[in-house]
């Protein structure tokens, strides 16, 4: 360990207690939101000299307005920042700046330190069911993020790193033909907020990214002379932004607050979206369904509206009716997160003839996104159901290793190897997991 890392480990140790509330943060996963994030940031990522498939913009459930980078290839945006952004261009300004930290190598490294942070699918009862089923102790060990989430609140980048990220962000916006207007608007908005509150909030963008008037002035000079300054916003992207913003607000806010922000009189798409979540959260499935139906009247084959309807039906105990809308949504998008929802609905019918389809759907989902512990959990249920104990054990091994429960992963992988035919793909996979988990268990033992 280098001295710096030792220091960081020491520092982390002392921050652990203080950082408790941070551990309550969860990562929000939603197919529509992730597709939107990829599309709105793709050109910026390319401008930063990286491959869009290697960089992901993800959402953390946290009401504070903040964003940060961690894990080398993730830009994390708080749900609070999305709720406070007025348009997609403001969000792009923030992402461009954060990409500047990645390209500049300003990444806080905490290799080897794993801490559980849960993953929440943008789904209500499903989340609870997953927790009950042990599927959502879901550690971020998977993405190599862990404690970095909590750390972001306490360690800010230096002023020099901030200005270099600002200038890099401005270059990416320019190369992507995006105006810097949103970035300026957002920084000014935050600055006003800090003035109003007198002191920066502990966990705010202003705290981790000190906003000086000077910083804003420098950016204004760079942005206004850029040919992209007057580029108008992209209306399709803007509409998608309003949708995911409404969806996130509906999902994370108290239902009363959502209904104040999106009153019944508002018949727009985002308002129906937000209210569908508010009603579903308040356990009014009929009202939630009527909002989903209003969306489907406007766009009968929109895969995300179909997903919403399927989700409400599934989570209010009507899995059979959820299958059709979810099937269509999966056929249209091939999105693994929606496929896992369909797999869950098929299994939840407890109808013998649905298990084969559930297996196909879940295997396809996992082939496209291996890092979904809940998908492995569901697949394990299918194997268990048809008496394939070794494969059920292998699915558990995958899930435990993903969430950082190494000794459970080792035990499950060993159990799988007992029943699998040596030399097969599944056997070799079990062997790999056993090897990696055993090493991790031993390393933990040594560290004590
Ligand atoms: Zn910064």
From TrEMBL:
InterPro entries: Mito/Outer_Membr_Metalloprot, Peptidase_M48, TPR-like_helical_dom_sf. CDD domains: M48C_Oma1-like. Its cofactor is Zn(2+). Gene3D superfamilies: Metalloproteases ('zincins'), catalytic domain, Tetratricopeptide repeat domain. Residues 42-221 form the Peptidase M48 domain. Residues 1-24 form the signal peptide. Coiled coil: none annotated. Pfam families: Peptidase_M48, TPR_16. Keywords: Hydrolase, Metal-binding, Metalloprotease, Protease, Signal, Zinc. This is Peptidase M48 domain-containing protein. It comes from Sphingobium yanoikuyae ATCC 51230.
